[in-house]
Amino acid sequence: MTELRKRGGGGGDPDSTDNISDKEADGEDRLGLSGDAEGECDVDSKTDTPDVPVSTADTDNTPECLTKALEGLPPRWKNYWIRGVLSIPMISSFFLITYMGPIALIVAVMGVQIKCFHEIITIGYRVYHSYELPWFRTLSWYFLICVNYFFYGETVADYFGGLVQREEPLQFLARYHRFISFALYLAGFCMFVLSLVKKHYRLQFYMFAWTHVTLLIVVTQSHLVIQNLFEGMIWFIVPISIVICNDIMAYLFGFFFGRTPLIKLSPKKTWEGFIGGFFSTVIIGFIMAHLMSRFQYFVCPVEFNSETNRFSVECEPSDLFVMQEYTLPAVLQNALKWETVNLYPFAIHSVFLSSFASLIGPFGGFFASGFKRAFKIKDFASTIPGHGGIMDRFDCQYLMATFTHVYIGSFVRGPNPSKVFQQLLMLQPEQQLGIFHTLHSHLRERGMLPPAATQTE
Amino acid sequence: MTDLRHRGARDTDQQQPSEDKGSDSELKPDKDGVSDSESKVDSGVPEVPVPPDDTPEVLNKALSGLSSRWKNWWVRGILTLAMISFFFIIIYLGPMVLMMIVLCVQIKCFHEIITIGYSVYHSYDLPWFRTLSWYFLLCVNYFFYGETVTDYFFTLVQREEPLRILSKYHRFISFALYLTGFCMFVLSLVKKHYRLQFYMFGWTHVTLLIVVTQSHLIIHNLFEGMIWFIVPISCVICNDIMAYMFGFFFGRTPLIKLSPKKTWEGFIGGLFATIVFGILLSYVMASCRYFVCPVEFNNDSNSFQVDCEPSELFQLQEYTLPSVLESVTGWTTVRLYPFQIHSIALSSFASIVGPFGGFFASGFKRAFKIKDFANTIPGHGGIMDRFDCQYIMATFVNVYIASFIRGPNPSKVIQQLLALRPDQQLHIFNSLKAHLIEKGLLPAMEVNA
């Protein structure tokens, strides 16, 4: 049955709702391994259209001990057990990395990003049978490095302002950062043009476009994730957990109550799962936000302490994370007999985040399902036994990361003060003076400065 | 010869690339539809079988005596002159008109590339796809124009209440609009056409990335001062013409397999000629305030104005010549605008790296077996054909300005300052005060906290 194929390939159900996030420990360990496995797949599937890469050539990634322990069970339950067993290490790695702090999280995000990029590019090679295009593998990785350099440079310059100002080479790099990134990108572009080979023009353009779209999707959004992280780890953890929770809850509701199919793209999703997942995610998100809001570790913006040369998460929690009293509307008052409730404002924001994750997040999953059907693949890769590739785990997360970032920018409070100050310092002195006076009058108007200021000049 | 095909075209648009032909782009889809069905028969080669002759009758009659090769040169030459004079007229008309032109060129280029995608994939009848492509174009334009408008029209925006809300939640609104398009795409996936639909989705996004982002960079350059718009474009045009001339008269060694007509002699000759042209052009333009001043929106008169004290870049300065040049020309110092030195960098880029944009477009046309992007301009091809080298130039100028001329826009910084919380504002105020006092810009005897 299909279960055998699933087990054999180590690929999980592509339409699975079990979207548990993986941690880079798995990804990095598997990098070498899956590279080989995919290499074998390439050779096999090149002859035919890139059909299910779950051929028998796939090495079974499930560890020996698990396979022995589960020998007795029927195949269907074996698959569930494998998935379940692997979900636990994944979730625990998530907790472990959260505990280890912001740097570990950034490295994890970076690792996931590289693996996702690799997976999608490999699919592109298979689709176009273009594994041997001259230069192309080099160029794809080169573009990845360029774009990452650009984004990390912007982030580093923003958040590590003090450190950057101290070191001379860093200062130079920061000042001409955009120019350097652009020059690097152009070098790659010119290499691409020079590498065009007569017979393979079309393929090369396809792969160029494929690389760029992948960069657009994968890299920009992983950097949005990191920017969310710097706002406060809670803005990183809560959205990811909400998406995971939505997947699990929708799956459970669908399993027990599912009847009406939701969309032709993913025949296993049901309306009951969708709606049940929505309500349970809102509730769980609310509870989680409530629990996490009291810890400074999660709530404070991550800052780089120039003296100790490490990250510190200590601050006065902002208004969002301070309990406030809300008057209940009359309806709820009658129901619960409370007049007011003490809530964190962040918990209310979490309702919006949960709603987005439940209502729009699945579209990311449908997009990935459509993509897999379009290119006739079962999973993005076979990295995680029972679950598929890393991209399979993260497809719903991407939309969420962008939404959270835009949400923070629009509703929680925009610009980063240190960044604004950096820009101020870069202006011409006359412009700085002009801004100084504007700011001065503005603050005086607002009563922040005593109005009886005798200004000379 | 190919000339006949050049002259033939499917539509009546014979105007120059920069003309505002919004109505034509509406006409286009019908006519493109006709040629698409014709070219669907062969694998993605949107060749024009029996095109109606696009050249105006009068030109045709005047040139009927000449052989077809010279006829083609004359047609190209006349249209080049028409395009260049049009360029001058537009510059004279001012920034607003320039912005509109850039917008129209962008829409036309987008349309041309998407049409090629349809021909390549025979996907003209995909459900929803045409609508979705235009919708995405609108979304991305809305996002970029919103950012530009908010930066430059800051006070106007603050005054009008609906504009203020739109600008405050701008990113959220743009993202919501984009997401709607994304969800519509997912819902429109049809079982048999998955792959095609994903291809067209990818095609649209890459086109948006190339065409739309760079047209907005052009507009940013424009706001820095019209000279930053005119000189780069002129350098690229000049490089094309000069490289062509040098290649025509002296060309021997082929440059690159992609474009067999380009030669090393043309390349190097074009480089030197363009540098000289750039220096001369910037000398002429740097003295006019109209070109040199940043474009600003005057709230009282509700119009654009270009009036200011020219920055240091545009004031004559004395430079000591290196001894080599001293002995040659007999001058010890020379008076130059600093901008002219920047123009050398711009010209060099236009001559050395700019052509790679052209090679990219040539490779693209060969890959998809098309002769030109479209047949908009008789003798020249589509608008994209005229603009392929410009795109990299626009990005380069923008990055150059940001890196070497001087970064952030003061009004944008003020905007961000005012958006901060009051305690953050106070904190920055104090830091700024300390900084200014340190630099000696403020007397140390300040009373305030």
TrEMBL record, chain A:
<keyword id="KW-0812">Transmembrane</keyword>
<keyword id="KW-0808">Transferase</keyword>
<dbReference type="GO" id="GO:0004605">
    <property type="term" value="F:phosphatidate cytidylyltransferase activity"/>
</dbReference>
<dbReference type="InterPro" id="IPR000374">
    <property type="entry name" value="PC_trans"/>
</dbReference>
<dbReference type="GO" id="GO:0016024">
    <property type="term" value="P:CDP-diacylglycerol biosynthetic process"/>
</dbReference>
<keyword id="KW-0443">Lipid metabolism</keyword>
<keyword id="KW-0548">Nucleotidyltransferase</keyword>
<feature type="transmembrane region" description="Helical">
    <location>
        <begin position="270"/>
        <end position="292"/>
    </location>
</feature>
<dbReference type="Pfam" id="PF01148">
    <property type="entry name" value="CTP_transf_1"/>
</dbReference>
<feature type="transmembrane region" description="Helical">
    <location>
        <begin position="232"/>
        <end position="258"/>
    </location>
</feature>
<feature type="region of interest" description="Disordered">
    <location>
        <begin position="1"/>
        <end position="60"/>
    </location>
</feature>
<keyword id="KW-1133">Transmembrane helix</keyword>
<feature type="transmembrane region" description="Helical">
    <location>
        <begin position="135"/>
        <end position="152"/>
    </location>
</feature>
<dbReference type="GO" id="GO:0005789">
    <property type="term" value="C:endoplasmic reticulum membrane"/>
</dbReference>
<keyword id="KW-0444">Lipid biosynthesis</keyword>
<feature type="transmembrane region" description="Helical">
    <location>
        <begin position="204"/>
        <end position="226"/>
    </location>
</feature>
<comment type="similarity">
    <text>Belongs to the CDS family.</text>
</comment>
<dbReference type="InterPro" id="IPR016720">
    <property type="entry name" value="PC_Trfase_euk"/>
</dbReference>
<keyword id="KW-0594">Phospholipid biosynthesis</keyword>
<keyword id="KW-1208">Phospholipid metabolism</keyword>
<protein>
    <recommendedName>
        <fullName>Phosphatidate cytidylyltransferase</fullName>
        <ecNumber>2.7.7.41</ecNumber>
    </recommendedName>
</protein>
<feature type="compositionally biased region" description="Basic and acidic residues">
    <location>
        <begin position="20"/>
        <end position="31"/>
    </location>
</feature>
UniProtKB/TrEMBL annotation, chain B:
<feature type="transmembrane region" description="Helical">
    <location>
        <begin position="339"/>
        <end position="361"/>
    </location>
</feature>
<protein>
    <recommendedName>
        <fullName>Phosphatidate cytidylyltransferase</fullName>
        <ecNumber>2.7.7.41</ecNumber>
    </recommendedName>
</protein>
<comment type="pathway">
    <text>Lipid metabolism.</text>
</comment>
<keyword id="KW-0443">Lipid metabolism</keyword>
<feature type="transmembrane region" description="Helical">
    <location>
        <begin position="128"/>
        <end position="145"/>
    </location>
</feature>
<dbReference type="GO" id="GO:0016024">
    <property type="term" value="P:CDP-diacylglycerol biosynthetic process"/>
</dbReference>
<feature type="region of interest" description="Disordered">
    <location>
        <begin position="1"/>
        <end position="56"/>
    </location>
</feature>
<feature type="transmembrane region" description="Helical">
    <location>
        <begin position="271"/>
        <end position="292"/>
    </location>
</feature>
<keyword id="KW-0812">Transmembrane</keyword>
<keyword id="KW-0444">Lipid biosynthesis</keyword>
<feature type="compositionally biased region" description="Basic and acidic residues">
    <location>
        <begin position="1"/>
        <end position="41"/>
    </location>
</feature>
<comment type="similarity">
    <text>Belongs to the CDS family.</text>
</comment>
<feature type="transmembrane region" description="Helical">
    <location>
        <begin position="172"/>
        <end position="190"/>
    </location>
</feature>
<feature type="transmembrane region" description="Helical">
    <location>
        <begin position="197"/>
        <end position="219"/>
    </location>
</feature>
<keyword id="KW-1208">Phospholipid metabolism</keyword>
<keyword id="KW-0808">Transferase</keyword>
<feature type="transmembrane region" description="Helical">
    <location>
        <begin position="225"/>
        <end position="250"/>
    </location>
</feature>
<feature type="transmembrane region" description="Helical">
    <location>
        <begin position="73"/>
        <end position="93"/>
    </location>
</feature>
<dbReference type="GO" id="GO:0004605">
    <property type="term" value="F:phosphatidate cytidylyltransferase activity"/>
</dbReference>
<keyword id="KW-0472">Membrane</keyword>
<keyword id="KW-0548">Nucleotidyltransferase</keyword>
<dbReference type="Pfam" id="PF01148">
    <property type="entry name" value="CTP_transf_1"/>
</dbReference>
